[in-house]
Design a protein that fits this description.
mainly alpha, 61 residues, single chain
Length: 61
């Protein structure tokens, strides 16, 4: 019996500003499809760090 991962529907209207910004940044750098298909855990540390760095710099502004 194979276990299937259920797709989680994301309601962007209920996300916090910071979470929404993470998705926006992922979209801008071309990682949005990967995040939507495989989740945040599928990102490499380099990809996560890039998103985190951009997020931190935007929060400072």
């Amino acid at each position: 019996m194979a276990t299937e991962k259920k797709e989680k529907k994301i309601d962007f209207a209920t996300l916090s500003d910071e979470e929404l910004m993470k998705y926006e940044i992922a979209h801008e750098i071309g990682l949005f499809p990967k995040v939507m298909e495989q989740g945040w855990r599928s990102l490499s540390s380099k990809e996560s760090g890039k998103i985190g760095g951009i997020l931190a710099s935007r929060k400072r502004k």
